[in-house]
């Protein structure tokens, strides 16, 4: 996996920032360091592919990159093979993964990223599908993919939009921690809870938590790692999480 | 469907009440009016079947009913055929539905409830599986059922633990309304958002929203109905929702 280059964002929207604004610096340096000029955007997690590609493309153009929606290409698999960089946006994870399977893109993207080092950017659902499965998504199962197994660019699970329990809350639905604990009653894979505003940067066999440093007292961008049968552990922005890649 | 008898609760836990306490009156009258003495409890939505059956059974015994866990029966399908009433508890909806399929219980329960009028009680995940599909669950897909199609005791979807968006919230993950709207981009079925504390009572072709009357200013037990391409509509406790059964 020495070639793997990933930027896995928790979300595109973050409180206090414009759309993708929190990630502009990391996104720009990630793409520039791989001499990327054109980004292949995958808008399958939402239904209006044109509007979604325009929304993300307008940010990318401002940062100096061009952007093509994979849905405009006659042969999506060929587009993946020709891509300088692949960016999969958020939305509904089930819809996204079903479409990736329908269009024969799971194996194609996996090969390009793992074997050829094509840079991969994911956000929210695009981060979920980059992991070993979509089993720790927060989304509703609005459509049924043939499998919950995903691109497996990393050998663990991520929970995007991670949020701690509201200690003053009156709502009795399961907290995010309780849901992840239920996952671990039946699955072994570690789950990295990535808060909005943070991302996991993966360079080959090294993984680092990136994100803003808290500017407001009480703001927290720590990630929380859940492992089966263990207490969860907290990692600050800047932490080396490479151990998660050694499964 | 003239024989159908359902009590579909949003949740077992409600702020300000003990476990199942909010539902004691409705549950007791529902079971008594059908002369039920023994309840067959289905604990498959959680992994510890004995503990879960004991938790619900202790409430049922206090109310005057006996309770048997289906997992203690040598032949679960035969247990369904012999049941006076079937109660499916909450937990993880994917795990619950997968187990119902594995044990050949989907068709068996459906037949008993729809053709023979065996009273059915559901809570949370047990309410999700009573509808046409589990596509509007809030749960994580911790295991994969063979299908998202469920018991279809009613011809629409329910979102249990329904909650309105937090207008002061900083979290940018999709709101419940946004998730249900995504469902409606790809599906036709109406979705009834059932708040914690409320339930849908179905007697043949009549459906009524039941629940506590607000005792604290600001508390709200209204249900919110989402239909594809329409503004959502609010229904108070006591409302006749029979129109939802005519699909």
What global shape of chain A is seen? globular
| Helix count from the secondary structure assignment of chain A | 7
Q: What does the average pLDDT of chain A come to? A: 94
What is the CATH top level name of chain A?
A: Alpha Beta
The percentage of residues in β strands of chain A lies in 15-25%
- Intertermini distance of chain A: 12 Å
The CATH topology name of chain A reads Rossmann fold
Order of adjacent strands in the largest pleated sheet of chain A: 3-2-4-5-1-8-9
The protein's oligomeric status is homodimer
Tell me the series of helices and strands of chain A, N- to C-terminal.
EHEHEHEHHEHEHEEEEE
The secondary-structure class of chain A comes to alpha/beta
Domains of chain A, number:
1
C-alpha-based Rg of chain A, rounded: 17 Å
Unreliable stretches of chain A = none
* Estimated helix fraction of chain A: 25-40%
The count of strands of chain A amounts to 11
CATH architecture of chain A: 3-Layer(aba) Sandwich
Most extensive chain interface and residues per partner = A-B, 38 and 38 residues
Subcellular location (chains A, B): Cytoplasm
Keywords (chains A, B): Cytoplasm, Dipeptidase, Hydrolase, Protease, Serine protease
Pfam families (chains A, B): Peptidase_S51
Function (chains A, B): Hydrolyzes dipeptides containing N-terminal aspartate residues.
């Amino acid at each position: 996996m020495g070639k793997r280059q990933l930027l896995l964002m928790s979300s595109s929207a973050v409180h206090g920032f414009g759309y993708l604004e929190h990630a502009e610096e990391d996104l720009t340096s990630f793409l520039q360091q791989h001499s990327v000029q054109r980004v292949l955007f995958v808008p399958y997690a939402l239904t209006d592919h044109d509007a979604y590609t325009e929304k993300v493309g307008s940010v990318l153009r401002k940062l100096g990159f061009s952007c093509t929606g994979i849905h405009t290409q006659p042969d999506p698999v060929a587009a993946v093979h020709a891509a300088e960089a692949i960016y999969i946006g958020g939305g509904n994870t089930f819809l996204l993964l079903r479409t990736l399977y329908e269009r024969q893109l799971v194996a194609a993207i996996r090969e390009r990223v793992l074997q050829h080092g094509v840079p991969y950017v994911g956000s929210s659902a695009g981060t979920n599908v980059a992991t070993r499965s979509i089993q720790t998504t927060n989304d509703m199962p609005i459509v049924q993919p043939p499998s919950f197994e995903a691109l497996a660019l990393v050998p663990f699970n991520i929970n995007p939009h991670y949020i701690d329990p509201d200690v003053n809350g009156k709502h009795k639905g399961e907290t995010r921690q309780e849901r992840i604990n239920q996952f671990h009653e039946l699955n072994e894979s570690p789950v990295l809870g990535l808060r909005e505003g943070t991302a996991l940067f993966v360079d080959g066999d090294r993984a680092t938590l990136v994100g803003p440093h808290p500017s407001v007292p009480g703001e927290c961008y720590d990630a929380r790692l859940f492992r089966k049968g263990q207490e969860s552990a907290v990692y600050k922005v800047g932490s080396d999480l490479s151990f998660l890649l050694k499964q």
